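Record passed on underneath.
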Amino acid sequence: MFAKEGYGIIASSCVLALLLTLAGIGLGGVVGAFFYGLALFSILFTLYFFRDPKRVSPEEAKNGHLLISPADGKIVVNEIVHEPLYLKSEARQISIFLSPLDVHVNRSPVKGLVEFDQYVPGEYLVAWEPKASERNERSQIGVLHPSGRKFLFKQIAGFVARRIEYHIRPGDHVEAGERFGIVKFGSRMDILMPIDVKVEVQMGQQVYAGTTILGRIPQ
């Protein structure tokens, strides 16, 4: 299964591969073989990047008891910050860095009502830079959990990623583990949560969207 956001790029990759193959046929020999290799690589890499594997979230997430990972990648930040945008209070921030080889489909970390969304144009610092959260191109989505707690998560473009897509808006109800968008070709995801959420991941840990438990939400 492939992410629908990648269909256009997959089609373009197929056209490019066809042109490279035709060029390879015309050139022949070692140079032709090189063009064949480029054609194969362009298709395989594009399909690999836009893969969208099926994920089954823990049952407790569906009941609203868990905060689960919204992205595949590694934990690069786990700290207390002040969040002035949506929580408007002290909050815990967990950040996940996605390499170009990770699955880039994003999933909602919690169930609840979408109350806030904002797209912010910006720079393209490397995604692991601390200032990337405030200066890079990003989306910012606020969800009100059934417990009354507020959660904010951000899709952040990196040095390579230049396209953010998301498909939820204020008024939508989301389930934990539900697909909501993608950031193309390397990026970062920030999750800001109330400080009473019990975090269950460590720095450097590999996490997976829709399945890895980031924390437990008090009821």
